[in-house]
Write a structure and sequence with these properties.
- This protein is α/β, with parallel strands linked by helices and about 475 residues long.
- The chain has a domain of about 210 residues: Rossmann fold.
- Helix content is about 35%, strand content about 15%.
- Helix 3 packs across helix 7.
- The longest helix is centred in the middle third of the chain and has 15 residues.
- The N terminus is likely disordered.
Length: about 475
């Protein structure tokens, strides 16, 4: 943890509040109130940072660029480098593993696969624990320290668990994680164990774990770090700032992101909106969210939405029908009742984006194509490229548009998926009825290992055959 190490401009934390997003309520609360939903109406909360700047856009951009070369520990973080945009005082005991600073890659093979002239992929899997969760967890655990919590907890499909365990360990806090038993990648589980978390395997799915976490949040010693926590969103929104720096402040036509619990899409939407409000960008990119077909409650809602009744994303539906038994091999987004759905839907509607779903086959093949670009990602990340292909075919994205896809997790988060895909053994349990056959996924880009004799001639012959 670090405190203030350099004099800098006063922030607007005296004006920052937690605010209910329901326009019929709009109640506000102090930053130190340990709440996760509005106490008055049970609505979703977000942080209003009271942002304002007297500087012109060029000066702000220049300061952020200069910090990237600084040795100040805050500046070495791709989150705390943008600290005047965050709801923390100068001397906050911030907890960092130098998260952020993730690359943005050109992806020519994936672009051709989607029908695009060009495509860039921002790889959040290059964070310290291998997923985008770190950009939010640095802020959430810092707030846990600020309010004096002893234990940080979360429900998780794996990535949040790994991130929470690492950052809580860094801060010297106890951490406890609720996971759906038997539904988590061994690689993700190993991270949580190694970082010292208490791992509670629950008989049920993620949504059952999330229900229990919300009950635990009533304990004053416990701090909930799921994306229902608005401070998580504050950290994650900085991905939008970093992305714009990497794009030389030229706003992409489209930004496409996977959709699970919807914290990521919420955060990106908030980040881009704040940049627009401060005059750092002149328009919003169209934000589109992609879900897996077997876990797509928000895509189902969006498909039946009347845009004339949701102009600007302000008049949101009151309820969303959950998926009772979500099914997908993309375990990071295997969520049937996302807690941040209203904020994500608002961000998509404001920007003119879409929310759609893609099949297991489409996810698997898109993942293999991303790999052909030398990048690699976990299955949930590949929904971005699978979704782009469908959005191009539908005419929402034009071939010449500038598009950035967000990859959320590292390829080594789920190595078994990769092996099964390329060996032709990848399948999803049907779940339709007991004893029904699994859904086999026959990859279009399989690359199975070959058994080759231990001599030079055999190896050369195999290479020739593959050319």
């Amino acid at each position: 943890m670090f405190g203030k190490t350099a004099k800098e401009a006063t922030r607007n934390t005296e004006r920052a509040v937690q605010r209910c997003i329901d326009p019929s309520c709009g109640s506000s609360y102090g930053l130190r109130e340990r709440i996760y939903v509005c106490p008055r109406c049970s609505g979703t909360l977000e942080i209003d940072c009271g942002l304002a700047t007297r500087e012109d856009a060029a000066a702000v951009r220049r300061r952020w660029a200069e910090r990237a070369a600084s040795r100040d520990p805050r500046d070495q973080s791709g989150v705390w480098r943008y600290r005047e945009m965050l709801p923390f005082d100068e001397d906050a005991p911030f907890v960092t593993l130098f998260e952020g600073n993730t690359p943005i890659y050109e992806a020519p093979r994936s672009a051709r696969y989607c029908g695009l002239n060009n495509l860039r992929l921002k790889h959040q899997g290059c964070n310290p624990t291998g997923s985008f969760k770190d950009t939010g967890m640095t802020a959430a655990i810092t707030q846990a320290v600020v309010v004096g919590a002893r234990t940080a907890v979360c429900a998780s499909t794996g990535n949040t668990a790994a991130s929470l365990a690492a950052y809580a360990g860094r801060a010297g806090l106890q951490s406890a994680i609720l996971l759906p038993r038997g539904q988590i990648s061994a690689a993700k589980l190993a991270q949580s164990l190694d970082y010292g978390a208490l791992v509670c395997e629950i008989d049920g799915n993620f949504d059952d774990c999330m229900r229990l976490i919300q009950e635990l949040g009533d304990d004053p010693s416990i701090y909930v770090a799921n994306s229902i926590n608005p401070f998580r969103i504050e950290g994650q929104k900085t991905v939008a700032f970093e992305m714009m720096e990497q794009c030389a402040w030229q706003v992409p036509d489209h930004v496409v992101v996977p959709g699970g619990n919807m914290g990521n899409s919420t955060a990106l939407g908030k980040g881009f909106q704040e940049l627009l409000d401060l005059g750092l960008i002149q328009r919003l990119p169209r934000l589109s969210v992609i879900q897996a077909e077997g876990a797509a409650p928000l895509a189902h809602l969006f498909a039946n939405l009347d845009p004339s009744k949701s102009a600007g994303g302000e008049r949101l539906p009151e309820t969303m029908a959950p998926v009772e038994n979500p099914r997908t091999l993309a375990t990071a987004i295997k969520i049937g009742a996302p807690v941040s759905w209203k904020k994500a839907l608002r961000a998509v509607l404001r920007s003119g984006g879409k929310i759609i779903s893609v099949s297991e086959q489409e996810i698997a093949d898109a993942k293999a194509m991303i790999g052909r670009d030398g990048i690699g990602c976990e299955p949930a990340s590949a929904t971005t490229v699978a979704g782009m292909k469908k959005l191009v075919a539908a005419g929402h994205i034009r071939p010449g548009d500038s598009v950035v896809g967000v990859l959320t997790g590292h390829v080594l988060k789920d190595p078994d998926y990769v092996s099964h895909y390329h060996r032709g053994t990848l399948s999803l349990e049907s779940g339709a009825k007991e004893g029904s056959a699994p859904q086999r996924i026959a990859g279009a880009f399989q690359n199975a290992p070959e058994r080759v004799a231990a001599n030079k001639a055999a190896i050369l012959a195999t290479l020739e055959r593959r050319r």
